[in-house]
Amino acid sequence: MKARKLLQKATSGGKNLRFDDLIKLSEAFGFALKRITGSHHTFKHPAVPALLSIQPDNSGQAKSYQVKQLLKLVEEYNLTIDDSGDEGEKA
């Protein structure tokens, strides 16, 4: 799924977003995976001083409060989606 569609899905409540899609969305905004400790995935962005830590719930879905955390960072730091990774994806 393209990053813009994932963003639309995340902003429409943040529920029913797969954990893998949250990772794709984070990376589309420029976050890079720094480390994985157990199920916790920690991301770093060059323009954001705080780390973003996310982990899936028991069903493989993203936790809604973590989707909201990402969206808050996006808004606070005026981050934009890098569409260059979507070239080969199918909708």
Write a structural description:
By secondary structure, this protein is α+β, with helices and mostly antiparallel strands. It has one domain (3-84): Metal Transport, Frataxin, Chain A (2-Layer Sandwich). It has 3 helices and 3 strands. The chain has helices at residues 3-11, 19-28, 64-76; strands spanning 32-37, 40-45, 48-54. It has a 3-stranded antiparallel sheet, with helices on one face. α1 packs across α2 (19-28).
Secondary-structure map with pairings?
Blueprint: H1 3-11, H2 19-28, E1 32-37, E2 40-45, E3 48-54, H3 64-76
Helix pairs in contact: 1-2
Write a concise synopsis of the structure shown.
This protein is an alpha+beta fold and 91 residues long.
Residue runs with pLDDT of under 50 for 5 or more positions: 87-91
> So what's the CATH class?
Alpha Beta
Overall geometry: globular
What class, by secondary structure content? alpha+beta
CATH-defined architecture? 2-Layer Sandwich
What's the CATH H-level homologous superfamily?
Hypothetical protein
Number of helices: 3
Q: Separation of termini? A: 5 Å
Largest sheet: 3 strands, antiparallel
Which key features would you list for this structure?
3 strands, 3 helices, Metal Transport, Frataxin, Chain A, disordered C terminus, about 90 residues, alpha+beta, three-stranded antiparallel sheet
